[in-house]
Amino acid sequence: MWSGPRNISTAMMRSWENRPDCTVVDEPFYAAYLSATGLDHPMRAEILAAQSSEYAEVVRQISAVPVTSALQYQKQMTHHIPRGMDMSWCKTLKHCFLIRDPAAVIASYAKKMPTVTEDAIGITRQVELFEEISEICGCEPVVIDSQDVLRNPLGILRQLCEALQLHFPAEAMLKWPTGRRNSDGAWAPHWYHNVEQSTGFGEYAATSPELREEYAVLARAMDPAYRQLWQRRLLP
User: Gene3D superfamilies of this UniProt entry (predicted)?
Assistant: First the structure.
């Protein structure tokens, strides 16, 4: 599942992990991303200590380590993947892209980080990876929009499972217990407070967030990329 930050991606991970047949992997390239970029993210030291900071080693781990469940769900952040990286490891996997309106992403990200940039929110990178993975796999990945999920989680998750040729345990995927998980990344204390209190997908907010001018400009600049994938999404 490929998304940018602040995009119900952790709630979606909860949904899949609550299936009895599925285990999850939480943002396996985060430490490699921080190491390569030198960025000073919250809990940087803890993240670097918890994961490999070598891209090749992370690929080896997620490709070669035996999966003990029928399904494995990988929560992947598009901005963690550098341009030019060998993505051939993706060929044997099924892919889905989780998208969200740029203004909503930026408004949420700005509450957790002091600055917001195009690279940090991963929307441009999401389109690039969609095209690259489409070519590698020989077909377009499934696309779902977070707004559609929040409006109708039952309908969208049913369609998603059908598109992936999986059965859909509705009760398990729509409700989960509160709390932290052993599978949560080292960054959870900073980023996961809301989802730790959740028991399901949140309510859809119909109002548009108010952004300061430079962030409104960024949202408008990101909208064409978002719309490229939005046009390919599963329809609610």
Answer: P-loop containing nucleotide triphosphate hydrolases (3.40.50.300)
